[in-house]
Design a protein that fits this description.
By secondary structure, the chain is of the alpha/beta class. The protein is about 50% helix and about 15% strand. Helix 6 packs parallel to helix 9 and helix 7 packs antiparallel against helix 8. The radius of gyration is 19 Å and the shape is globular. Keywords: Cytoplasm, Lipid biosynthesis, Lipid metabolism, Metal-binding, NAD, NADP, Oxidoreductase, Phospholipid biosynthesis, Phospholipid metabolism, Zinc.
Amino acid sequence: MFDKTTWIRLPRNVLVGHGVLDQTVEAVSELHLHGRPLVVTSPTPREVAAERVAADFEAAGEDPAIVEIGEASFEAVQRVIEVAEEVDAGYLVGVGGGKAIDIAKMASDDLGTGFVSVPTAASHDGIVSGRGSVPEGDTRHSVAAEPPLAVVADTEILADAPWRLTTAGCADIISNYTAVKDWRLANRLQNVQYSEYSAALAEMTAEMLVGNADSIKQGLEESAWVVVKALVSSGVAMSIADSSRPASGAEHLFSHQLDRMVPDAALHGHQVGVGTIVAEYLHGGDWQGVRRALDTIGAPTTAADLGIDDETVVAALTAAHEIRDRYTILGNGMNQDAAIEAAETTGVI
Ligand SMILES: NC(=O)C1=CN([C@@H]2O[C@H](COP(=O)(O)OP(=O)(O)OC[C@H]3O[C@@H](n4cnc5c(N)ncnc54)[C@H](OP(=O)(O)O)[C@@H]3O)[C@@H](O)[C@H]2O)C=CC1
Ligand SMILES: O=C(CO)COP(=O)(O)O
Ligand SMILES: [Zn+2]
């Protein structure tokens, strides 16, 4: 008997463009959601966009509530769930970078409510994905979460955000190259479930971004447009796969390990980009091309660029495979000599 089932959950409304933040209430009203909106945000995005979104809901006769989070943790998810229950929220609106959006989507999943994604930075490809990424102790979970019913990405806000956030988003997309290679390897060696469509979309997204690298420049709103569309596309690849596999391989394990060792030292996307250079080298691929693309965009390519010392980068490489049970080119782990060799050859240290 044929027994395969695919259930792909995607947003219904995706608005990308100049000033679309003002259309958030309209985009939400089309979804037939009921009850109070709870806006989940963090300090800077609150000032940049969340207060405006809440004011627009208020003007439309809704009764919005706001909750501010500081970090991506299960405690923060629990706090949002408690606030949502207290205020009897009907649905959640995540306004911010990757952390606020991840927490809102995980809390929505638990509450069984709808979720709307309003990115204030083009810094990560979790904008659309139905996954949350949360550190806990020595590990980092990729958690199934509520995918957004709508996405409102205002390129005016994204272009106004610090440029380094946009270069981080570019690097998070470039990492799809090695993530997909790892996924194929895991499929062949470990029979990990694999989707050709999802992998092709993730690779094509990276390919298109690298093809446009010369035109991704600070101060151009067009650049925010190109990057956020790629981030959406990469998130769709994760939704098709029902896994972060198309966008997260060894380079992400390296970044997650750095987050453990030196929390908040550098942006997620920047760490992932440097990890991609090394992972591409380990795959025997065009690591120079990856480094060139990151360099053209202005994303870090070395430990020094990340502001992290060489020893920590080597230690993160040797311990990256321990982060979670995800088979990658790292196999059972790199020893110290191999990690030094790879990092030195690629110019990372
Ligand atoms: N679920 C998924 O599929 C994915 C999840 N992720 C996760 O997302 C996170 C990384 O996302 P990232 O956005 O880099 O991290 P953050 O959400 O921490 O945002 C980075 C910084 O940018 C600030 N910021 C956000 N918007 C603006 C703005 N418009 N102007 C000025 N500053 C702004 C934030 O402020 P403040 O400090 O006030 O928050 C924060 O300091 C990680 O936790 C990562 O694991 C990444 C990719 C995919
Ligand atoms: O960051 C991600 C994709 O860019 C996904 O994160 P995980 O590695 O936690 O799945
Ligand atoms: Zn990522």
